[in-house]
Every structure is written in C-alpha cells, then in structure tokens.
Amino acid sequence: MRILHTSDWHLGRSLHRVSMLTAQSVFLDHLVTTVREREVDAVLVAGDVYDRAVPPLAAVELFDRALHRLAAEGVPTVMISGNHDSARRLGVGAGLIERAGIHLRTDPARCHVPVVLADGHGDVAFYGLPYLEPALVKDEFRTERVRHEAVIGAAMDRVRADLASRATATRSVVLAHAFVAGGEPSDSERDITVGGVAAVPSGIFHGVDYVALGHLHGCQTITERIRYSGSPLAYSFSEAAHRKTMWLIDLGPGGEVAAERVGVPVPRPLARLRGSLEELLGDPSLDRHEGSFVEAALTDPVRPAEPMARLAERFPHVLSLLFEPERTDGDDAPVSYAQRLAGRSEQQIAEDFVAHVRGGGPDGRERAVLRDAFDEVRVEDAVHEGAGRHG
C-alpha cells in the first residue's frame, strides 16, 4: 500500500505578518497532484491542520477545498488533530465526512478504533492518536502520572490490544502528534513541555509497522519505521535550511517499509544573512537572496541609520532585522534579551528570574511549584481553546 505522509499544514499562519495562504494553496495543489501522479492509496495528515483553534475564514475555505479535491480523487485520507487545532471543531461532522473517505480522528477515547483499508495483500489498520494533553486525558486513560509518556503509552496499549484481536496478517499504521526523543525541534513549534518533560521515547510505539508523526517541523527519521514529515512550508527563520518534503511510504505485504522523500514547492525561500550593513548591501554573492524572505543580523559596532529601509532596496522581502554587533578584543558586546532567552523553556526563564532577584536559584520544592503553575496555565489554555477562544 502506498501512503503519503504529511503534517503541520498550519493553515492560516503568517510569517512575520506576511500571510502564507497563497503558498499553502500552492502546496495543497501539489499534494493533490502527487496523489494522482504517484498513485497514492492513502493520505495521512498527522496534526496541526490549522494554526490556531479558531482559524480565519480563508483558512477554513482552503481546508474545505482540499477535502473536496481529495474526496474527488477517491483516495482515503486520515487526519488527526494537533496541539494547535481545536479537536472538537476539527471533528465536527466527522461521521458524515467519513462517507466521502475523509477520516477525522480527534477523539482520544476512540484512538483504538482504526480506519481499515485493504490492498491486494490484506488489511491495513490506521490508528489516529490526536494530540493528547496529559492533564485533559489522564482520566480517560487512567494514568497516575500527568506526563506525555504515560498517556501516549496508555493509548498505544489500547492500539496494540485492538491489533491483537485482528487477523495475524493485518498491517498497522499509527498517526501521532508528539515530541519523540531524538527529534530536532525548531523555533516555530509551540512548547508542549509538561512537568519539565516534552519528549517521549520512540520505543513507546513498538508493535506497529509505521508511525506517521507530526509536531516537529523538520522532516526527519527517528527510526526506519518512525518518521516526521515536517511542515510543508517554513514557518520561522530557524527552518531556513530545511528541505521541505512529504514521505511517500510503500508498505509491503509483510509490513516492510520503503520510504521516499517527495519535495514540495518553495514559493519563496528563506535566507539568514549576517554582516555589516555595507557588506550586505554590496556583496555580489548575496544576489541569489534578493528574491528571498530575509532575516538580517547586522554586526556594525554602531546601529546604522534606517537599516531596514536601506536593506529593503536590495532585499524587498526582508522581514526581520537583528542588531548583533561583533565582539572585539577586550570588549564585552551586549547580549540582547531575545538572545538570552533563545532555546530556554518557560521554566528555565522563571528560575533564572528568581535567581536574579534574590541572589540564589529556587530549591526543589520551589521548582516543583513553578512547574505545576506552568502546567496549569497550559491546561487552562487548552480548555479555553476547545471552548472557542483564540489560541
């Protein structure tokens, strides 16, 4: 069976206030063309269909058109909700839509109920694990620990139990939206850390033939059977070096996996440039970036006059300007607030603040209090998004 694995469409997202809807439409055109030309048997979307719980109307219309086109191709599509989606909103009408071959899996309680498709070698059971916010689903899965590993482990136990009840030759595919250990994050994924832990071990998915992951935006292979497709477009300059692709998976009669990366259109590439203003304006080797979205880091010792306007004369799509004067011998160059926070979690930032104001960091009990507070805020946000508040 030939499977097209994609994820993290983030319909409705902008890049530094520039709408990505046109580029997203181009990607969906390409997806449908790929389905047709590569004779795909099933399309998988591993979460974050939308960028927020209440997406703009234009994003909803784009999604609607994509569903109609996929249904018209007669190729089944399996989708799960991600941490950016409102599971309840995305799942509205799922029963009716399923008649058209579009299978929306947004209810954690039904993660063990597969979409069963068949090819010449027998059945393939597709299990959809929507994003599982631990504090919201711990009662459903009867877990003692409020952790991603606990709830995903319990969900996978249900999947394996259902799979064991089926014919021995039944092959299996799991869609999941999670941070799996070994994956490489970027700046554009929303933090899902709970209790100081974000990642789950890859071994939690043992016993299935293929795991189609969503959440991380870089296409990557955790194991031969566990892969992230990544987002189809770059949604932050940290993704400038990403090669955006989908996975074309051929699932053999015995569950063998053959994987091919299928490229997607790049309407406008991203470039991260660094140097003095005069270097960026005069370097002929940068000609190739004049049509790119540009993030420019200026190294001038003194901030130049009107740098953004001057850069825009050469790079009309410059979106981000950083001022990072280069350090000279014996000179401690200032570090920006954004640089100090880069790569640090909310918990780490809070602990640093405590250490700064009182001259000593928090003890174990205080760290636990901070961790619980951040977890509670995250759960409140998830509950409000499900009820209809903007994410």
UniProtKB/TrEMBL annotation:
Calcineurin-like phosphoesterase domain boundaries: 1-218
Limits of the Nuclease SbcCD subunit D C-terminal domain: 267-356
GO molecular function: 3'-5' exonuclease activity; endonuclease activity
A Pfam family it matches: Metallophos
Database matches in InterPro entries: Calcineurin-like_PHP, DNA_Repair-Maintenance_Comp, Metallo-depent_PP-like, Mre11_N, SbcD, SbcD_C
Keyword NAD recorded: no
Top-level taxon: Bacteria
Gene Ontology biological process terms in this record: DNA recombination; DNA replication
Keyword Hydrolase assigned: yes
Keywords: DNA recombination, DNA replication, Endonuclease, Exonuclease, Hydrolase, Nuclease
Family: Belongs to the SbcD family.
Purpose: SbcCD cleaves DNA hairpin structures. These structures can inhibit DNA replication and are intermediates in certain DNA recombination reactions. The complex acts as a 3'->5' double strand exonuclease that can open hairpins. It also has a 5' single-strand endonuclease activity.
Subunit-level organization: Heterodimer of SbcC and SbcD.
Name of the protein in its database record: Nuclease SbcCD subunit D
